[in-house]
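Appendix B, example 12.
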Amino acid sequence: MRARQQVTAPGARRTKVARTSTTTAIFVPVPAAWFSCGAAAWSGRERGTDMVSVVIAAHDEAAVIERCLSALWAQEGVADLQVVVVANGCHDDTAAVAGRAGATVIDLPEPGKSAALVVGDAAARGFPRIYLDADIVLPPNALAAAEQVFADDPGVLAAAPRRHVVTAGSSTLVRAYMAVSSRLPAYRNSLFGRGMIVLSENGRRRFDRFPGVVADDLFLDSLYSFEEKRPIDSVDVGIVAPATTSALLRRLVRVRRGNADLRGSSRSPRPGPDTVGTTSQVRGSDRLAWLTEVVAPEPRLVPAGIVYVCLTTLAAVLARLGARRAVRWGQDTTARHTSDATSTSGPGTSS
């Protein structure tokens, strides 16, 4: 039986977890150093033997996180598993649900994925280190398959599963956009847009701590060369598309602004804890890839290509108009409209 633990940060709300005959909620103060720790701090922490650690930054995820955690506890071939959920700025029962489901929970009062990842990283002890979105439901072989990737090639530092986009509950325009977007070459052997990123211990040593940017997955992708990244071919995750065009636009604007902030941070003349290190190479974008790599080889996608260009252009304009406002970690509630966001085992045609 895994011990269940609830941790609260200074000033955070203490969410009471129901006490049962088999579980006990333990409240432990979070060391202030966790908020500023980096590679030097975590590398000296005592780590569990053969332990795999999963870090989940969760903001108002009570509706989906139990399924995510249940799938983690059902993993096969993993000797020891630690799951750290960092609830941040939640207005729902995310912390309580995660605590009852068996996770170590850290409850932060303010929303912010970057800060949540920093704190969760400091609490994690094992490797491989998995950063997982709260709405991703993994197949039973996912963690073992991730471990195997690193065992097969010690030169691999980062891995991510294959992906497919679920559009069952989406509008016609959203489906058209995704028909092009999901085929873009940028998703080949990349770490972003998958809801799960896995780092080896050597891979985690590549950076000090997560910078104060929204685009954490693009940040991680920028740290590793093509040869240092590897897809987990036997694992395919379902990424649920927004239900409405307005929700898609909001997501596109948020992503564009987050990516722009990351690229601006990487060019900062004064590196600091919230800037990207000089070792990173933020992936550029090929603005004509939708045409040369997607629509040209498949002319039937011409109508979808028109939708893609229109929505991408509109999102770019809206992102510029809101450039002076701070980028916040957003959540698309319409993407929680279906239970099809499950993952599968075995090779597929996803990117």
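Strands lie at 5-8, 27-29, 51-58, 80-88, 104-108, 129-132, 158-166, 196-199, 229-240, 344-345. The two ends are 37 Å apart (CA to CA).
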